[in-house]
Amino acid sequence: MVRVIAPGSAFDPAWFEAGLAVLRDRLDLRPRFRDDITAREGYLAGGDARRLAEWDQAVADPEATAIFCARGGYGAMRLLPAIDPAPLLRDPKWLVGFSDVTALHARLNSAGLATLHGPVVTQLGRAPDDAVGQLAALLFGEPAAGGAEAGRGLAGTATIRPGRATGPLLGGSLALLAHLSGTPYLPSLRGAILFIEDVGEQPYRLDRYLTQLSLCGALDGLAGVAVGQLTGCDDGDGAAAATVRRLVAALGVPAIEGLPAGHEDRNLAFPLGPPATLEAPAPDGAGAPRLRFDDGVTG
Fold first, then answer.
1. pLDDT band with cut points at 50, 70 and 90 for residue 286
2. Domains of the chain (ranges plus CATH)?
């Protein structure tokens, strides 16, 4: 059994039902959620008190093995001062989500917990087979539909700066990470591989976020950088990718881009928190750029 929560914005009921069908029929999971999960308060899925109570109940549910987020959208970071990682340290459950859920990932990763950056429920109904297979492999240790390599890593499309790095894999939405800078909730990235992705952010905003993280010292001591999908961040002219590529290359660490994770339908899940290895071959080197997950992450 898994719990489903709405820690951020309100969501489309039709997409929610389509995602629940994937949980039930393709992943053989039993989703449980509160009757008021469809609540709305302005742009939020109900007030802070409702969403925090929902979180606490999901964490305390002894039958739940994972907590899926219905949607991202703004709101999760409002809960951070009241989020206590201690119950999950005693009884770990996967937290699954992305986008604004980055705030919750950051809080739990800072406490030493592993989480899953992966599809929210309202995205699952559009997920291709390999995305569902990747999620199944990480949840159960069995690659349901993604082939023998499901759950073992992610392949990128290009090297930004060649090299090899190993460290805890952290990150998520670049905008959320920048907004968490200067708060107690951004995990230390020293020695880490930083994953970033985003949606609807113009190139100058991506520049601003990376510059803010750099100016506040959050990027000091990074081991490597992995760039995912930059969805709707330019007018098709490649300016967003070029901007991020230039700023990431200037960090002087091994870096790759084009990972299939983020706001597109093909959003492949991966663990945040545990160590991973980033392989960024030189242009004349062998093999594709990759993130490889350490043995023992799945299951």
1. confident
2. 2-126 (3.40.50.10740), 153-293 (3.50.30.60)
pLDDT digits (tens, 9 = 90+) for 173-222: 999 999 999 999 999 999 999 999 999 999 999 999 999 999 999 999 99
Please write the tens of the pLDDT for every residue from 216-232: 999 999 999 999 999 99
Active-site choice (197, 201, 257, 279): 197
Task: State the catalytic residue, choosing from 9, 54, 99, 179.
Answer: 99
Is 9 a known active-site residue? Answer: no
* Active-site residue, 110 included: no
Annotation marks residue 263 as catalytic: yes
Under 8 Å between Cβ of 24 and 30? yes
